[in-house]
Give the backbone structure.
Amino acid sequence: MARGAAAGAPAAWLAAAFLSAGLPTAAPASAAARAAAETPAAEASDVGARVAGAPAAETPPAAPPRHVLLVTLDTFRGDRLAPETAPNLDRLAAEGARFTRARAAAPLTLPSHASILTAAWPHTHGLRDNGDGPLDAAHPTLAERLAARGWDTAAFVGSFVLDRRFGLGRGFARYDDRVTRDVALLESPAAERDGAEVVAAFEDWLAARAGGDSDRGSAPFFAWLHLYDPHAPYEAPEPFASRFPGAPYDAEVAYADALVGRALAALRARGLLDESLVAVVGDHGEGLGEHGESTHALLIYNSTLHVPMLLWAPGLVPRREIATLVRTVDLAPTILDLLGTGESFGEGRSLVPLLAGAPLPEAPAFGESLYASRHLGWSPLHSVESGPYKYIAAPEPELYEVSSDPAETIDRLAARPDEAERLAALLAAELGRAPPSAAQRAADAETIARLRSLGYLAGSAPAPAPTVDPKRKLDVWERLLRATELQARGEHAAAARAFESVLRSERSLPLVYESLGACYVRLERWDEAERLYGLALARDIDSAAIRLDLALARARRGDAAGAVEELRRALALDPRSVAAHHHLGDLHRAAGRTAEAAAAYRTALTINPDYVYSWNGLGRALAASGDAEAALTAFRRAVEIAPGEPHGVLNLAVQLERMGRTADARDTYRRCLELDPSPEIRGLATQGLDRLAGD
């Protein structure tokens, strides 16, 4: 991720992080809890729940915390919760409960977070891939449950993958998903914001609570922070990059750890930390070369399913290291139990008995990735871990004895067919009760573009080939990842060469045609784009993305009618394509069809209310039709969304001048010039000031 000067990120906390501030340790409320808190974690028992010197049936104190802070760490391996890479989290875990065998539901951000917040498996809640959604109202979220009880709720997310359109914002009074306000990034959107900005937004919210409405300020709160930073590409800021030379992923982990420390320090500074339950969990891990997978999403080994999970609350959560198999779907029920709500939730279960040192029968952990099936036409993958074994259902199934082989290096399928059969039956029974997921709509063209800007492979669904085992196609996968990473970084010429190489051996994958064509369009190699898409259509590979790019190519060579026809074909394939509606508006406006143009822009804005290009287009269409006040409103909205974008400010200034509002127009032209505009916009703004000089 490219990082500038992060908002609210003074150098002092980067250097000292949270350790210098000190994590307050409240006295445990019971003698048993005190004994547990004073016993080193290293002395914990290896049998079942590792209880540090406490009676087997100890119960945490009954007084619930007033506030809850949930921190989700994107792409954070479970084995990185260590003093070297995550000192703040390690200390938090040492003073609370750490689950050393926690498993995510999927190696993908959206499905995994949906499972954390609903306590339901992906095959139940239906969000099984990034871009799925919205979440069905039949699956309530933790925020909805707490909001219904009067809690103030707020979320601050660091990635477009968790945009409100996918449904995880339900129940949050504030859902801060403002991943970017840089208008230059909206057409090919950056899908991530620096974690320092996420934490700064949280700090601002805390300050507003304290200084605003007294009822709101005194209400208990549930806040969710999502830190995306460890996700590839690994580009941690200083001093973290220098601290981990040759280990950029670890540098990102350390940066995320410092951000958690900063959030905790913000609570502590306001006297809120001692009243809070802090829950930290990873959404998935990272391959880092294990099993041939450099990142995540494709395979479902524990390199990407083993995650950190910990709870901390002074006097409520005893110090424990718990080795029982747990699942991230168990976290929300545990939080509700610790808050004393007395309600069951989702398919997970409360882990409070383990916190109390009591035995809890182990429950199986299910995992899945439909990524290869959805985007490449290869087989989906499903897994179940139970007891000492983990089974992976694939064209070539696998069985691992994870208790003695946590890295899953020795396939025990042939040696233990009985265990494989037992777990296969357990997995089949679980998947057999899943509701149909076909109702989940496919990702729209804008969503696909944003996912690609993250480095995710995303495109139209190919014809399935369920006999192709993803682990046998890792060479193709890694080549595609490298090409997509180049594309995400804006290196379109290099990305085009990489996709061309893949296309020579893989001619049936729609996303290769779409991604390569998108590179050609960015490079304005229009003839090559048209030839490529012609090959795709001849192979019966068709999509809204292909038709959209064909429309742009035909518009460039002056074929407006052909461009309109291609856009209509794109919308027939994907009625929610923001870009297609917007470009259709541009073509109507250029032809003087202002009513049709305004309608197209409004449709785009219904789908994405923050699409600043369509606000500017709508303003221009309304101005041309003579509706000055409505045009002014549209331009004001464009500037509100992207205050640093000179083109929108210029449009606003021109409209103010047209309406005779001279002083406001003059001020707005000057503001435009302060934004370092292009020479063309600078010239137009200067001309505007010259026209108004005598007024």
User: Anything to note?
Assistant: The radius of gyration is 27 Å. Residues 1-62, 181-190, 450-457 have pLDDT under 50 and may be disordered. Residues 204 and 552 are 42 Å apart (CA to CA). The first strand starts at residue 49 and ends at 51.
